[in-house]
Write a structure and sequence with these properties.
mainly alpha, disordered N terminus
Length: 342
């Protein structure tokens, strides 16, 4: 009798309730995003129109792929940030702060300014391959720097600042020698935008981000063991170096795919894992799917605001995420400093 009278919310784990809540929030945001924009396209009105109507064309060719792309990229960036924080055992690790996004953008810039003659099938993935190569190179550089000496947090942040400066200077050189068309592409990458969303773009991004995000979930237990330290994880049966390399490879894939299709969108990989860790806990079996849903919600909300705040014009979505993430990052630094003084 007591079992029957127990409220349902007490029988469902808190982590599962959080995931269900995030999934419901994502569906709600998707419906709101579908109805929002320079042209109002409400679903009830849409269903009363013939399929070849102009509103259907706007919804199917512009709005729907953009909504889905925001979900996919937000999921990838948040998962990448969660994995990096776990690998480095550092809550401030983030693809943007550590220069990984800048490295990916630099390699994409090289592909834009110095295009190669490639088969049509490879051309579709050429920018993504370039972004992946750049993010992978920077990931391993940062990983090696983080393992040198003491004071890993300061070394990590300083390395990120230096890498961002070097990559920024290199992108500046490419901008200087580029033509008008290439310069416009650089500008959009620098601020981050989903304005180029198409079904082909979504297909390319989803074909990488979705399976890689699922793959990180299968490594959640090993990621948990890495938090105990390399030595303890080794004694518990984890091949530490191999696991770290695999996780860095997956994280680089997520960053590379995201940067390739929409440019640099910062702070999602920093903010979302922090917020979810406070609610769900540090268990990556729950934290990774929660971060994926949370990242999709945040980027979808930011992109919807970017499309509607200054309609019919459009703000770069990277500016909105920076407005949110910059103060949050400053708060984290001040909070860490206060804890050390205590």
């Amino acid at each position: 009798m007591s079992t029957l009278s127990t409220p349902l919310r007490q029988r469902i784990p808190a982590q599962l309730r959080m995931l269900l809540g995030l999934a419901l929030l994502l569906i709600t945001l998707a419906v709101l995003a579908a109805n929002s924009g320079a042209i109002s396209v409400s679903l009830p009105a849409l269903l009363r129109q013939p399929f070849d109507n102009e509103l259907w064309q706007i919804w199917m060719t512009i709005r729907l792929p953009r909504i889905l792309l925001a979900m996919v990229v937000g999921c990838g960036l948040a998962c990448s940030g969660t994995v990096m924080q776990g690998v480095f055992r550092n809550p401030l690790a983030d693809p943007g702060l550590l220069g990984i996004s800048s490295g990916a953008a630099l390699f994409v810039g090289l592909m834009i300014v110095f295009p190669l003659s490639l088969p049509p099938v490879i051309v579709l993935y050429s920018q993504m391959i370039s972004a992946f190569a750049g993010s992978l190179v920077i990931s391993f550089i940062v990983f090696m720097l983080s393992r040198m000496g003491q004071n890993g947090l300061s070394r990590l942040l300083l390395a990120g600042i230096a890498i961002n400066a070097i990559c920024g200077a290199a992108v500046g050189v490419l901008t200087y020698i580029s033509n008008d068309s290439q310069l416009r592409q650089f500008s959009m990458w620098g601020m981050g935008s989903l304005g180029q969303a198409q079904w082909s773009t979504l297909t390319v991004a989803a074909s990488v981000i979705v399976p890689v995000s699922i793959a990180t979930q299968f490594l959640a237990r090993r990621l948990n063991l890495l938090q105990l330290g390399d030595e303890d994880a080794h004694y518990l049966g984890v091949n530490v170096r191999r696991t770290q390399r695999i996780l860095l490879l997956l994280s680089a894939l997520l960053v590379g795919a995201s940067v390739a299709v929409c440019g640099i969108i910062g702070f999602i990989g920093l903010v979302i894992p922090h917020l979810l860790r406070m609610q769900i806990g540090a268990d990556h079996r729950w934290l990774l799917p929660g971060s994926a849903l949370g990242g999709a919600c945040l980027l979808l909300l930011a992109d919807t605001l970017a499309r509607t705040l200054v309609a019919p014009a459009e703000m770069p979505v990277g500016l909105l995420t920076a407005i949110l993430g910059g103060p949050y990052f400053l708060w984290l630094i001040l909070r860490a400093g206060g804890q050390r003084r205590d």
